[in-house]
Amino acid sequence: MFTAWTEALKNGHQIIDTFKLSIKQIIQPFVAVKGGLIPALHKVQKEFGFLNKESIKTLAKSFNISDAEVIDVITYYDDFKLEKQGEYIIKVCQAEACQSLGCRELWDTLRSHFQLEQDGTSKDYSVTLKEVFCLGNCALSPSVMINKDVIGRANSQKILAYLSTKQNNSKND
Ligand code: FES
Hints:
The chain is 52% helix and 12% strand. The relative contact order is 0.10. It has a five-stranded mixed beta sheet, with helices on one face. The chain is elongated, with a radius of gyration of 19 Å. The two termini are 16 Å apart. It has helices at 3-10, 15-31, 37-48, 53-63, 67-76, 96-99, 103-113, 156-172; strands at residues 88-93, 120-121, 127-132, 144-146, 149-151. A hairpin with a 2-residue loop joins strand 4 (144-146) and strand 5 (149-151). The protein is α+β, with helices and mostly antiparallel strands.
């Protein structure tokens, strides 16, 4: 992930042109295809990690629609991101079953640990913290989802230990 973005950064003042060119190349196979916008958005996000202003403009121009139409699609689907996200997306369930078993306290502890005012992304982009409403794991409340893994009977020690193991494993890969 982020390979094209890293390449673009190396080019200093040519960054925007390089970025636009990269996006055009990435989305080119989808432009003439009916319903090609969604796969094009997925492809750009996979490459750059999120969909920024320049990518929205380039997509709009290529698909011959307005920037607002592209933004409408992005904001309709929860999977698309307008800002760079952390490496680990931590979703803390705030629905009833989890609330009765301490998810608010867990939320506050994680927020304070990662020095976040509210939900959002840590300064080092290691984590993004989000509130969600039911992860379908109510029997094991409180529940947290980190990227694709659901953690039941969650507490801050369990979450931090999970992250530490993942980070150590990725260092050793
Ligand atoms: S209420 Fe939290 S997982 Fe369902």
